[in-house]
């Protein structure tokens, strides 16, 4: 393992942290309809817990409605029950072919709650990025101790790791600010 490999590994892991943050943000209800809202919901599909997206077509006909059309008519009741059991507070309407979910506008109190949750997700992502920085720096120090790199190389590499960390922490801050703005938008 060399310095470049340590840096590339750190950057790759930080990028995955950002992807994870995007997924977490996608699950936050913002008053706008989004297919990612129902992504995490699983229904009993012939004895197997299956994600709704793997047993139905999910569409967004307008900004406040999610339409779910199961591929097999017999599963419509199961999907409806799964949505009701989820902790999203959504009420599905079943017309026999399609399940429609109207997304109600958020209350001010719920918006503030969601903002806190989004900040928590952001903070968790920053902690993860800092842990990756620590791992990379430890690897570099070990390489210097084992005489694989010089002290100057160690200093330069730790600076590079810090620049990478700063870049990804700024990215997390930017995404958090955008999500908070989206949540507070009426």
* Number of contiguous helices: 4
Order of secondary-structure elements: HEEEEHEEHH
User: Separation of termini?
Assistant: 51 Å
CATH topology of the largest domain: Topoisomerase I, Chain A, domain 4
Mean pLDDT: 87
- CATH superfamily caption of the largest domain: Ribosome-recycling factor
What's the count of strands? 6
CATH class of the largest domain: Mainly Alpha
Largest beta-sheet characterization: 4 strands, antiparallel
- Under the CATH scheme, the architecture of the largest domain is Orthogonal Bundle
User: Which class of secondary structure composition applies to the elements?
Assistant: alpha+beta
Segments where pLDDT lies below 50 for 5+ residues?
A: none
In short:
The protein has 186 residues and is of the alpha+beta class. It has helices at 3-26, 76-85, 108-145, 151-184; strands at residues 42-45, 48-51, 56-62, 65-70, 92-94, 99-102.
Structure description:
The strands form two sheets. The chain has a four-stranded antiparallel β-sheet with strand order 3-4-6-5, with helices on one face. The protein has two domains: 3-27 and 107-184, Orthogonal Bundle (Topoisomerase I, Chain A, domain 4); 35-102, Gyrase A, domain 2. A hairpin with a 2-residue loop joins strand 1 (42-45) and strand 2 (48-51). It is elongated. Helix 1 (3-26) packs antiparallel against helix 3 (108-145), helix 1 (3-26) packs parallel to helix 4 and helix 3 packs antiparallel against helix 4. The model has no long low-confidence stretch (mean pLDDT 87). 57% of the residues lie in helices and 15% in strands. By secondary structure, the protein is of the alpha+beta class. The chain is built from four helices and six strands.
């Amino acid at each position: 393992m060399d310095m470049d490999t340590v840096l590339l590994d750190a950057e790759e892991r930080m990028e995955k942290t950002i992807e994870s943050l995007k997924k977490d943000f996608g699950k936050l209800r913002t008053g706008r309809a989004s297919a990612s809202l129902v992504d995490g919901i699983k229904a009993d599909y012939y004895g197997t817990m299956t994600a709704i997206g793997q047993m139905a077509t999910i569409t967004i006909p307008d900004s406040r409605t999610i339409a779910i059309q199961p591929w097999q008519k017999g599963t419509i009741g199961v999907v409806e029950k799964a949505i009701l059991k989820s902790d999203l507070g959504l009420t599905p309407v079943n017309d026999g072919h399609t399940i429609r979910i109207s997304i109600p506008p958020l209350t001010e109190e719920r918006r503030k709650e969601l903002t806190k949750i989004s900040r928590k997700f952001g903070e968790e992502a920053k902690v993860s990025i800092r842990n990756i920085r620590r791992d990379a720096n430890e690897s570099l120090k070990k390489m210097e101790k084992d005489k694989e790199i010089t002290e100057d190389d160690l200093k330069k590499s730790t600076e590079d790791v810090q620049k990478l960390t700063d870049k990804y922490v700024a990215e997390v801050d930017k995404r958090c600010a955008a999500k908070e703005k989206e949540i507070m938008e009426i």
